[in-house]
């Protein structure tokens, strides 16, 4: 059946259900294979009651989570179990206005095209691939990180790695995968979830390419101790303590060779410096805000 724009608009622009009513919406899933061939109905949790047409959402899809776009109101039979939407994805508003969503639905119906494929064609290339879990300090966490502590009650239950994570976020929100922690990705996720549970930071799924905001880079600087260590190694002398690995030595050599004595971590050809080097006082790790049009190499660089 061909869906005209007028009919689609009637479905899209209906009033959301009241607080006491069960509201369900039609969602196009951005999934590979046959999953994106049709739309699916999801329950809107009370916390997301103001969810609108064109907004991106995170949903449970099979055995995994997937990104979807709300197309409009939907109806579901009473005897059908409907999964709830997991969370709203931050994108500074709807990805597409209601009129464009209505057009996408009409195109999908008229040309028998997968709805998610049509929506992708209307969005900037690669936008839906830039889904990130972003961490941001809440006011109490920001004040604690700036002071080097979180307060006597909290400080006793936070280790050095937790305090370092708060410090990495002191300049602003950052993707979780860009944060550094000593216990790997799984340990990092446990730490940030724990800090979220304590009310020290907020986690939010975000489409980082949806707005022309800043990005953040980690810069690695060489300390006086690091320069001395590099000089000793170049002279064939042995450092006190556990010997450095070849990749750690390569990082020191690159920093010594740089004019400013510091480099973006992404530009280090040897390897990323370890927390041990920072702990030993050989390098410093700082986070700087970099505009989208100010990255090395020229041209426009999108957020990851």
Order of helices and strands: HEEEEEHHEHHHEHEEHHEHE
* Structural shape: elongated
Structural class: alpha+beta
CATH superfamily of the largest domain: PriA, 3(prime) DNA-binding domain
Q: Specify the CATH architecture of the largest domain.
A: 3-Layer(aba) Sandwich
End-to-end separation in angstroms reads 40 Å
Strand order of the largest sheet: 2-1-4-3-5
Tell me the number of strands.
11
Proportion of residues in β-strands: 15-25%
Number of helices: 10
Summarize the amount of helix as a percent range. 25-40%
CATH topology of the largest domain: GIY-YIG endonuclease
CATH hierarchy, class of the largest domain = Alpha Beta
Arithmetic mean of pLDDT: 75
Give a quick account of the main beta sheet: strands, pairing sense, barrel closure.
Answer: 5 strands, antiparallel
| Unreliable stretches covering 5 or more consecutive residues | 1-15, 141-153, 291-304
Rg (CA only): 24 Å
State the domain count.
3
């Amino acid at each position: 059946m061909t869906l005209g724009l007028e009919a689609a608009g009637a479905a899209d622009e209906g009033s959301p259900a009241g607080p006491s009513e069960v509201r369900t919406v039609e969602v196009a899933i951005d999934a590979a294979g046959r999953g994106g061939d049709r739309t699916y109905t999801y329950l809107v949790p009370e916390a997301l009651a103001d969810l609108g047409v064109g907004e991106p959402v995170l949903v449970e899809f099979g055995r995994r989570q997937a990104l979807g776009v709300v197309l409009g109101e939907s109806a579901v039979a009473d005897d059908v179990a409907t999964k709830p939407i997991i969370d709203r994805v931050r994108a500074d508003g709807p990805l597409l206005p209601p009129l464009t969503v209505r057009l996408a639905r009409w195109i999908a119906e008229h040309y028998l095209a997968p709805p998610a494929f049509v929506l992708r064609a209307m969005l900037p290339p690669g936008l839906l691939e830039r889904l990130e879990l972003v961490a941001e300090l809440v006011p109490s966490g920001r004040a604690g990180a700036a002071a080097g502590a979180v307060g006597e009650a909290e400080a006793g239950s936070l280790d050095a790695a937790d305090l370092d994570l708060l410090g990495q976020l002191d300049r602003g929100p950052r993707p979780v995968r860009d944060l550094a922690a000593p216990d790997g990705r799984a340990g990092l996720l446990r730490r940030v979830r724990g800090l979220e549970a304590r009310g020290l930071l907020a986690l939010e799924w975000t489409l980082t390419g949806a707005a022309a905001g800043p990005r953040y880079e980690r810069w690695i600087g060489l300390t006086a101790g690091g320069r001395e260590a590099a000089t000793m190694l170049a002279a064939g002398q042995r450092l006190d303590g556990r010997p450095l690995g070849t990749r750690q030595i390569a990082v020191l050599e690159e920093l010594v060779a740089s004019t400013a004595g510091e480099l973006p971590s992404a530009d280090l050809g040897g390897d990323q410096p370890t927390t041990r080097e920072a702990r030993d006082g050989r390098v410093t790790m700082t986070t700087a805000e970099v505009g989208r049009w100010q990255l090395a190499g020229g041209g426009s660089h999108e957020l990851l």
